[in-house]
Amino acid sequence: MNELHYPGDPDNLYEQTIAEVLATADFLNLPEHLRLILAQPKNEVMVHFPVQMDDGRWQLMKGYRVQHNNVAGPYKGGIRYHAGVKLDEVKTLAVLMTLKCALMRLPYGGAKGALKVDPRAHSSEELMRITRRFISALGNNIGPDYDIPAPDVGTNAQIMAWMADTYINMSEMHNRVEAKSVVTGKPLSFGGSPGREKATGQGLVFVLETLLPNLGIELTECRYSLIGYGNVGSWTARLLQDRGSKLQAVMDHSGAIRNPEGMSARKLAEYVAEHGGVVGYPGGEACSEEAFYQEEVDLFIPAALEQMIGPEQAKLLNCKLVAEAANAPTTPAGERVLTEKGIEVLPAILCNCGGVTVSYFEWKQNRQSETWEETEVDHKLQAMISEAAHRVHAFAESHHCSMRRAAFAVALQHLQDIYALRGIFP
Ligand code: GLU
After folding, report:
1. Is residue 368 part of a domain?
2. If residue 102 lies in a helix (H) or strand (E), which one and from where to where?
3. 359 C-alpha vs ligand 1 centroid, how far in Å?
4. Is 358 in the pocket of ligand 1 (CB under 6 A)?
5. Can you give the pTM of this predicted structure?
6. What's 104's domain CATH number?
7. 242 and 138 both lie in a single domain
8. Can 112 be counted among the known catalytic residues?
9. Are residues 67 and 172 in the same domain?
């Protein structure tokens, strides 16, 4: 089978992502072997395991861990809990992790995991049993020097604590200190890093601070809309509020709300924590999905799931810039419409790399049995992100290409450099 010739399903997320990887490889004139290696993940692990529910029934669970590439270091990437998850989605997210880590020059490759489960449909006890059994099913497919999971959609610090505890208990006695760094995004009192919970939102704000002046937008006067009010969306909103930006419209699984005067990100976060969604928040009025997309703003931030901005949504958008906080939220067809309308897109592998970067800081702290100050974490994160943002911007300017093409190119060039030095085993 020739990995480079896909049947061509324009709606398939994996094909869309690999098509952009291959187009960027063409643009850079990269060698054929690199294109071949990157077109498929190295390993795709799929596990099924039974778990007993609180009422005594047994449920069979399905889990994935896809390891895309490890030329730059151990595999790294989150684990999501979502009922609708599919293998191609996990493969795509693993590719994006390889690119994200390469773009940030982190000593990691890329991976992603998923469990086909709706975390909201289970008690905390059930989630703990499911999580422990998942980690035991993955066995030696993860490890602090081999593959390091982290939170993603539907998982959090508590779930990471159960993962680490299970892995530590499965480890040899003499490896138990090191075993803690098998996952990142842990709670602060159990090996987590200050600043990790807000890290993805914080990273996005640092990217915007670095690049918005080039686009003539000031964060102090920026009006924006947001899809998703989970970890990434709500932290982005809280940090943007501190900069003076105005949240005019927000949409999540419960529906959409707007307020042209702006909404309090903190009060909205409290409301969502209590009610499970944004609809009903007294500081905004309910609006249709169409009206949400049409809201006139400077910045539009998708911070939920993949493929949310297709051509239909792109036609409605009334903004100057889309900053992708979620992974792969814009489809290629959606992006073509945005480009025709003159709307710039800041790509996810740059915008949301704050999460994995602070995961790297957590892993380093664990290995040295240290805890850094939050200001130190923020400072290091800002330095690394603004450097990456400048690298991407400089490439886009000098090669007259989109920021997405530039971000992929800067990442692929780094991988090519490593392959050229290491050679291909044996
Ligand atoms: N799940 C996050 C992402 O997609 C974080 C991954 C990590 O920290 O390893 O970037």
Report:
1. no
2. helix 87-103
3. 8
4. no
5. 0.96
6. 3.40.50.10860
7. no
8. yes
9. yes
Q: Are residues 186 and 206 in the same domain?
A: no
Say how many Å lie between the CA of residue 162 and the centre of ligand 1: 18
Place of tokens 């680490």: 164
CB 243 within 8 Å of CB 212: no
- Whether 327 is in the pocket of ligand 1, judged by its Cβ within 6 Å, is yes
131 shares its domain with 269: no
Reply yes or no on whether the pLDDT at 2 is more than 60: no
CA distances from 288 to 225, 233, 251, 252, 281 (A): 14, 20, 10, 12, 15
Residues 131 and 208 in one domain: no
Number of domains the chain contains: 2
- Residue numbers of the domain that contains 254: 199-346
Non-local CB neighbours of 124 within 8 Å, separated by 6+ positions? 158
Confirm if 369 and 310 have CB atoms less than 8 A apart. no
> Which among 237, 201, 245 has a CA at the least distance from the CA of 220?
245
Q: How confident is the model over 209-245, as pLDDT tens digits?
A: 999 998 899 999 999 999 999 999 999 999 999 999 9
Q: How many helices (H) and strands (E) does the chain have?
A: 16, 13
Cα angle 331, 359, 373 (rounded to 5 degrees) comes to 130
Query: Whole-angstrom Cα distance, residue 70 to residue 110?
Result: 7
